[in-house]
Structure formats: C-alpha cells, structure tokens
Design goal:
The complex is a heterodimer of chains A (533) and B (302).
Chain A (H helix, E strand, L loop, with lengths): L1 H7 L2 H33 L3 H16 L2 H11 L9 H27 L2 H9 L4 H31 L11 H12 L2 H30 L1 H7 L1 H6 L31 H13 L2 E12 L2 E12 L3 E5 L6 H8 L7 E6 L2 E2 L11 H11 L1 E4 L11 H11 L5 H14 L15 H13 L5 E5 L7 H18 L3 E4 L3 H7 L2 E6 L2 E7 H6 L4 H17 L3
Parallel strand pairs in A: 3-8, 3-9, 6-7, 7-8
Antiparallel strand pairs in A: 1-2, 1-4, 4-5, 9-10
Helix pairs in contact in A: 1-9, 2-3, 2-5, 2-7, 2-8, 3-5, 4-5, 5-7, 6-7, 7-9, 8-9, 15-16, 15-17, 16-17, 17-18
Chain B lengths: L1 H10 L1 H30 L1 H9 L7 E6 L2 E2 L3 E4 L2 E6 L1 H13 L2 E6 L5 H6 L5 E7 L9 E15 L17 E5 L4 H6 L2 H6 L6 E5 L2 H9 L5 E5 H10 L4 E17 L4 H16 L2 H8 L12 E2 L2
Parallel strand pairs in B: 1-5, 1-6, 8-9, 8-10
Antiparallel strand pairs in B: 2-3, 3-4, 6-11, 7-10, 7-11, 7-12
Helix pairs in contact in B: 2-4, 3-10, 4-10, 4-11
Classes of the chains: A alpha/beta (533), B alpha/beta (302).
C-alpha cells in the first residue's frame, strides 16, 4: 500500500499524464478535423470524393493503430519527414480516429429526421444554412455520447504511443517497473491515474449532455435572458386580425362559407392574375408514371383542393410546385417565373434552387408538421426569417409572435414541438410557412396525421386564412367536407392524370368522371361515419 | 484548520529535501566515473580524435535504447527522470572522448534498429547482440562478449539445463527480436529426434513482462543476458533462480547507421581509447558485471 501511494504521487508518472493528455487532445482535434472532411466527402454529391473517403476509412479503420504509429514514426523519415515522437503519435492517432469520428458524425447527420430537412428546404434554406441551423444542432446532441466514448478510447489508445518513445504514462510505468521490479504497485497506480482521467472525461460528457438538454434549456426560461430576446408578450401587429382560436381548450366555432360567397370568390379569382401555372408536367419513378402531362392554373386568391386516392400524385404535384422534386418534362411557373432554370437556361444547383424557393415565395405545410425539433415554436418561425430572408432578430421575433397569436398559440411560444399536441404543432407549422408572406401556400394532407379531435382547430386556421386573407392555397386532402367548406375549386387526380377540374359545388354534386364518382362515394360514406352530424 | 495548513506546509519540503539528499548521494556515487570521463576527454588519444572528427564535437546525439535491463539500461529508481547502467556510462564515456552529449530515446527492443534506420536516433547502445542478421540493418562495433543466464522458477522444477533438449516441451518467454528466439526455435528437430514435443515460445516486449511470465507460471524459463537474470533473481530470491549460465557465440555491439562511415570510425576509435584508459573495465566492475566479458572492438557488418 505504501508503495502504491508512493507511485501514485510520483511526479515522474504525473509528468507522463501531461504527454498522455497532449497526444489524446491532438489526436482528437486532428481526428475531428479529418473526420469532418471525411464525413462531408461521404455525404456530399461527388461520387469520386465519397469513394476516396471510403477508401481512407477502409485503410485506417482496418489496420492496427500500433502499425500506424510505427509507420508515422519510422517510415515517414525515409521520405524526408522526420516527426518528433509526440507529433508522430498525434498524426497517427488523428489518422486513426478520423474514420471513427467521421462515422459518428455521419450517423448523427443521417439520424436527423428527413422531414426536418424537407421542411428546411421548403423554407428556402440553402444546404449550408440547413446544415448549420437544422442538421448540425440536432446531430451534435445525438453524437455527444458516442464522442465521449471515442474520447475515452483515444485516451486509452494514446498508451500505444509508448512504442514510439512518447514518454507518456504507460511508457513511464513499464520502464519504472523494469527498473524497480515493483510491477503491481506501479501498474495499480497508473491504472488509478487512467481511471481518474477517463472519469473526468465521463463527467465532461455528462456536463455537455446537460448543457445541450433541450428540455432544461426551454423549461428554465433562462435562454430568453441570455439571448435578450423580446418578451413573449409582444402585442400582435395591428394589421393582423387575430383568429378566434385563443384558447386550445375552447371548442372552436365551425364557420361555413356560404356556397354563394365561394362561387363569387371563384369568379373573382379567375379574373385575377395567375399565381401557379403548370403546363404538361410529366414525372416518372422508373417505369411508373406519377404525373402524366398535368395542366393546372391557379389564380390569385383561389383555394384549390386536390382530391384523389393515395398514390394519385397529389403530394408529388405539390412538391414539384415547390421544386422539392425534379420532373422529367413540362413547365411550372410561379408568379410568372419558370422554376428550375437560371437566366442562362441551365439547371440550377441545390443552393440556387433554395434561393429560388425563397424569392418566389411558396410556403409548404406537411402532413407530419416537420417542426424543427430543437427549436421552440417561436424560434421555428423566427429562425428561417433570419437565416433565409435576412430579417433582423428582433423583427423576426416580433413577426413570429404575431403569427403565433394569430394561430392561437401566443401562450405556447417558448414550448418545444415535442411538448405541443399534433394540432398545435400543425398550427405552428402553418404560421412558419406563412411567415415570409408566400404568394401561394401548399398544404399536403394537413390534417391526416392528427387525432380526430385535433383536426378541427387546424381546419379552422386554414379556413380563416382563406376567408380573411384571401391567401392562394393548394390543399391536398381527402377531407371532403373541408374541401366543400373552404375550396373554390376541386381538382381530382387519379393515376397522375387530372380527371376532373371545376368549381367545388359542381364537382362534388355533379361529378363527370366515373373514378371521381366512386371516390366521392367511398370517402363520403367513410367521413359520414367518422363525423356524424 | 490552521494547524493542518501549517503541518502541510511543513510536510511539503520533506520530499524535496529527500530528493536533494538523494541526488547529492547519486552525484557522489558517480563522481569517480565523471573524474575518469574528464581525464579521458583530456587524454592525447581523445584530443586527437576530437581534432579528427570535429563534426561530432559539441553535438547532441540520440541514443535509442530499451530501458528494461537493470545493470545495462533502466530508469534510476531514485530519480526516474534519468537512465542509468553500464551502457549509459559507456555511451557517456564515448561522448566525453569525442566531445558530444547524449539524449536517450526509449523504444521497444524490436524497434531499436528501425528507429536508427529512420534517422530518429544516431546510435544504439542497448545491450543488443551483434548478429549477422541484424548487421543487415546496421553496422555494429562490438564491446562485450555475451553470457546468457537461464532464469527459471525457484528450484528449477522443469530441470532446464540450457538451450538444449531439456527445453523440449517447455515454454520459454522471450522478447520479440531477441537472438534467443531462433536458438530456441531451432531445437525443434532435435526434440523430434528424441521423441519429445518441441519447445514453445511466448513473445513479450520487455524483460519485466518475461519475468512476470515466469512468476505467474505461464512460462518455464527466460533465457537472456546473465546480468538481467541475476538482477531478477536478486529481486525475487524466493521465487526465481538461475539454472545455469551459457555462452552464446555473439558479442554485444554499438549499432550505427550504415550510411555514416565517419561516425562508425569515430565510435570505433573512441571505444578503443575508452578501453585503453581502463574505463570499460572499471564500469563493468561498477555495475557488478563480469570483467572477463570485455572484448576488443570489432566491426560486424554485412
């Protein structure tokens, strides 16, 4: 025991800890740098770079670290690169850690819900903004435990640097044991020192996890103080009419737009300029034709309901209008601008497509909401305004609060999506899509993922947008009653073909195509059972 | 609280006093050698060599070593920040004769010659035997004969009598790259001839691991330099013993790179001076090594 204490407090061993930490830190920093590069190459769009990164991973993950250390130390001098022991160890450890760290980073990025990426793209985020604001913050939370593991593994691996004369803890312990023959007291002492070091890393990991814990951050309310955000109680701007959905517990009134009003609006809308124009849009996945020469015109202020069985191409059509999908032939114009081609007629890069989306102004609401899980309701709305449209933080925040009040969620501004009900999430998603003042709002089955009792609050918001704002909307839905209540026009799509296109009342009461007739009968019967009365 | 603090303050200097006393003691212990070194540096022979090889004067050379062999090279248990042993003193003596200083780079035994070849070290003085195989990687200047000891568990339960058929069916612990490895392996046909299983080998990285293998009962013997064996027996008199000493047809040598003939010539000449001045003999005595093992410098190259 006395010997153990003697060696545990021996400065000679603790000086070795300095080298152990130095090699570990350098190896991790280098590994992170190379790992970022490797992960980027593998996630990127250039196959040659991805293959190169794969090759590197195969070699450096597939050979023992000890060989890499000896190579860096004893082979590199033959090509004129003589490194000090610490530098050689740092190089070898970096090269060895890199593929492992790259895989952790890749797993983190891949693990981010694809819907969040889709939503970010739909909001006009460039790949870079998307990575920085949506993917990275969520990926980092997911990879902290794995990185903690990797750090501990790197620290222990640094002991292998003893073979290339780095005077670190293990080398000092073995030499000391050889000269004193006190094997066990020395190795116990160095084992305890290693445990202290790895224990410290575990502690750091826990602190990181706690610091990144969304629930703590959102729940404490401290973040508002840190970031000096305007208060949650900012009054809605006078120009915006508050919606009647102030309290979620209150049952919302069900407004029915009288048929005549709608017909009038439809007549008026067709006189206005065309917002969306689709000419002979054709798209196929392999052999399957998804959209078969679809033509569609939507006028300003018009609300179009896209009806059709699942797989009929409704979602694909909406995604094409927002250029989230490529198509094979045909033209899409939004606000008179043709999508997908630059002024020089060349195809756009993903970054330019993002800018196009942002400038043309197509908002999109998804079936699964796709709110950014790491951001509060308010940040979900204000963030894209800052990052995509360059609004100052205060202004973006004010607009977010205004919109949240409009959808009746001013009191939930600082809640995380996971603490909101499905209906509330969808209302936030609608507010987020509305924030940049889109010229057209696309809604892809906005209520299909909601529990029946939550459907109404979302429909109510959409209805008010149609009535009060005269917002141009294309809504893919199978809610016949909702289509009847809110849409000016119904477009019935089956097997990628527009089977029927006409004023709501006409299509619902006097369908011409046999497929439409059957669809309306089946859906009508189902929904009559779901919603009696 | 105050008392505790005072006690602490009083206790802190104790290790320092202890260390200072130790280093003073160590300095006194090695003083004679230093005196010899000074005398050596001033000798006419060494003066002439310094004039002949001026490129070494004032330089710091790197000596790669495997510091796991107490007596030859190991950490100073009293001051682990430095290495001590016969090889260290010999290297310093060569340094004073030629006017260079030394730093030491600890590597695994099998890495000694690769370290030299890659230029990470200038020479290797580390109880390494100058075999013709190794002479393909580096040139050797010999300075001592090789006497091996056969380390066994106390009482030699397996009745091992050397590198012969007594090893058949037994387990020998050796370090990777040791000359004893092929010698043990070559016993296989002999063992077969007498109808016994061949000996098996456990390869380790340093003496400590080999000695542990015998202490733990994993290996039956460890055959290495007799001094190493003696040191191990001294450390574990109740558990280990030396079965026998054997002479191997090798010499211990200083390894120098093949592409530096001038350094090789300088070391060779300086070693002759060191031996002539009686320094090597007194160093053998100082480290309780067999004075009869001294050998006239000879170049082993391929």
């Amino acid at each position: 025991m006395a010997l153990f204490i003697h060696y545990l407090s021996l400065p000679y061993l603790w000086l070795g800890v300095g080298f152990t930490l130095e090699v570990t830190a350098l190896g991790l920093v280098g590994g992170l740098a190379i790992g970022l590069l490797l992960a980027g190459m593998q996630l990127g769009r250039i196959p040659a770079l991805a293959a190169l990164a794969r090759g590197y991973t195969v070699v450096f993950r597939g050979t023992p670290l000890i060989l890499q250390l000896v190579f860096a130390y004893d082979a590199l001098p033959h090509i004129g690169l003589t490194l000090t022991p610490v530098a050689a160890a740092a190089l070898a450890l970096s090269a060895n850690e890199a593929p492992f760290i790259a895989e952790i980073l890749r797993a983190g990025v891949i693990g981010v819900d694809a819907g969040q990426i889709l939503a970010g793209q739909a909001l006009g985020m460039t790949p870079r903004v998307l990575m920085r604001r949506v993917i990275a913050p969520q990926a980092i939370r997911a990879i902290v435990p794995a990185l903690g593991n990797e750090t501990i593994s790197a620290l222990k691996n640094s002991s292998l640097a003893s073979v290339i004369a780095v005077p670190e803890l293990t080398l000092r312990s073995t030499q000391l044991a050889s000269s004193t023959f006190d094997f066990f007291s020395i190795f116990f002492a160095s084992g305890v020192i290693y445990l202290l070091l790895t224990g410290g890393i575990s502690l750091l990991q826990l602190l990181f996890e706690a610091a990144l814990d969304l629930d703590r951050r959102a729940g404490s309310g401290r973040i508002a103080v840190w970031r000096k955000k305007p208060s949650a109680t900012a009054a809605p701007a006078a120009s915006v009419s508050p919606v009647a959905v102030e309290s979620q517990s209150e049952k919302m009134p069900f407004h029915v737009v009288a048929g005549t009003v709608r017909e009038e609006r439809h007549a008026k809308a067709t006189g206005e300029d065309i917002v969306v124009e689709i000419i002979k849009l054709h798209k196929r996945y392999g052999d399957q034709i998804v959209l078969d020469h679809v033509d569609l015109k939507v006028h300003r202020g018009e609300v179009v309901a896209l009806l059709g069985p699942s797989g009929s191409g409704k979602s694909t059509l909406l995604r094409c209008i927002n250029h989230l999908e490529e198509w094979d032939a045909g033209i899409i114009r939004v606000g008179g601008r043709q999508l997908g081609y630059g002024v020089d007629g060349r195809k756009l890069s993903p970054r330019d497509i993002a800018r196009e989306r942002a400038s043309i102004g197509v908002g999109m609401v998804f079936q699964q909401f796709h709110l950014f899980a790491h951001l509060t309701a308010r940040q979900n709305i204000a963030g894209p305004l800052q990052w995509v449209h360059g609004l100052p933080a205060a202004e973006a925040d004010q607009r977010a609060m205004t919109l949240l009040h409009r959808v009746g969620l001013g009191h939930r501004a600082d809640a995380l999506p996971r603490h909101l009900s499905g209906g509330q999430q969808q209302r936030v998603a609608i507010a987020r899509a509305l924030a940049p003042n889109p010229s057209v709002l696309l809604l892809d089955e906005p209520t299909s993922a909601l529990d029946p009792e939550l459907v109404e609050e979302v429909l109510e918001v959409i209805r008010l947008l149609a009535e009060q704002d005269g917002l141009t909307m294309i809504i893919a839905t199978h809610q016949l009653r909702f289509a009847r209540d809110v849409a000016d026009r119904i477009v019935f799509l089956a097997d990628g073909v527009v089977k029927e296109d006409g004023p709501t009342h006409e299509v619902l009461t006097r369908p011409r195509d046999p497929l439409t007739v059957r669809f309306l009968r089946v859906m009508g019967a189902q929904q009559a059972m779901e919603m009696p009365g | 609280m105050h008392v505790a603090a005072r006690v602490k303050r009083m206790m802190w200097p104790l290790p320092i006093i202890f260390l200072t006393a130790l280093s003073l003691f160590a300095m006194i212990a090695i003083m004679p050698v230093h005196a010899e070194d000074t005398a050596l540096a001033g000798s006419a022979g060494c003066q002439a060599l310094q004039a002949k090889y001026p490129m070494l004067k004032g330089k710091t050379l790197v000596n790669a070593l495997t510091p796991h062999t107490p007596g030859y090279e190991a950490l100073d248990p009293q001051d682990p920040s430095r290495y001590i042993g016969f090889d260290i003193d010999l290297a310093e003596a060569l340094g004073s004769c030629l006017g260079f200083k030394l730093t030491y780079k600890p590597v695994a035994f099998a890495a000694l010659l690769p370290t030299l070849q890659s230029g990470q070290a200038d020479l290797v003085i580390s109880d390494i035997y100058a075999t013709s195989e190794r002479a393909k990687a580096a040139d050797f200047i010999t300075y001592s004969k090789v006497f091996d000891g056969v380390l066994v568990a106390k009482g030699n339960p397996k009745h091992i009598t050397g590198i012969n058929t007594s090893l058949c069916g037994n387990i020998a612990a050796e370090n990777t790259g040791f000359v004893e490895v092929p010698l043990v392996q070559n016993l296989a046909p002999e063992c077969k001839a007498v109808g016994k299983p061949e000996p098996s080998l456990q390869l380790y990285d340093n003496n400590a691991d080999c000695i542990q293998a015998i202490l733990a009962g994993r290996a039956d013997t460890y055959i290495n330099d007799v001094n190493t064996v003696d040191q191990a027996v001294k450390a574990y008199p109740d558990k280990l013993s030396k079965a026998v000493a054997v002479t191997l047809p090798y010499s211990i040598g200083i390894a120098v790179p093949k592409n530096k003939p001038e350094l090789r010539a300088a070391i060779m000449a300086a070693l002759i001076e060191v031996q002539k001045a009686g320094v090597e003999t007194s160093l053998l005595k100082k480290w309780s090594l067999d004075a009869g093992s001294i050998e006239e410098p000879r170049l082993v190259t391929q």
